[in-house]
Design a protein that fits this description.
This protein has about 130 residues and is mostly helical. It is built from 4 helices and 2 strands, in the order αβααβα. Strands 1-2 form a two-stranded antiparallel ribbon. It starts with a helix and ends in an 8-residue tail after the last helix.
């Protein structure tokens, strides 16, 4: 896999959001800048994988020919969404120990929502098709 410029932009956006969360929420801790950067990279990798899986499950829901297949895939999707938050918490704990903490389930959920919104906003801002003409 190649690293694209937009991947670097995503990591920088994640780093900024993570820095804001460490300032605003006492339960979110990153002891050093390097750890925050490594956490942002880990979040990028995990969230890309979760988005890829989610897109595949959604495609299977849309392509399902029977209600049973649609229901099974819908249940899988409903398990993936909260499960991804626990995955993020466990991977961060495994990778960085007590040096990085993202709070609890609700703080991680809020963090991921803000990460995705910030990522989408920056991508939209950088998109040539939607950028205002100067």
């Amino acid at each position: 896999m190649r690293i694209r410029p937009i991947d670097l932009v995503d990591v920088l956006v994640y780093l900024v959001v993570l820095g804001l969360f460490t300032q605003l929420f006492p339960a979110v801790i990153s002891e050093t800048f390097v750890l925050a950067l490594l956490t942002a990279i880990l979040l990028k990798v995990v969230l890309e994988a979760v988005l890829w899986i989610k897109k595949r499950v959604l495609a299977r829901i849309r392509a399902a020919e029977t209600p049973a297949v649609r229901i099974v895939n819908l249940i899988a999707l409903l398990l993936i969404l909260p499960g991804s938050k626990f995955l993020v918490l466990e991977l961060v704990a495994w990778a960085f120990g007590d040096s990085v903490r993202l709070g609890g389930f609700f703080q991680v959920t809020l963090l991921i929502v803000v990460l995705m919104l910030a990522r989408g906003g920056v991508r939209r801002l950088l998109d040539d098709r939607t950028a205002p003409a100067v």
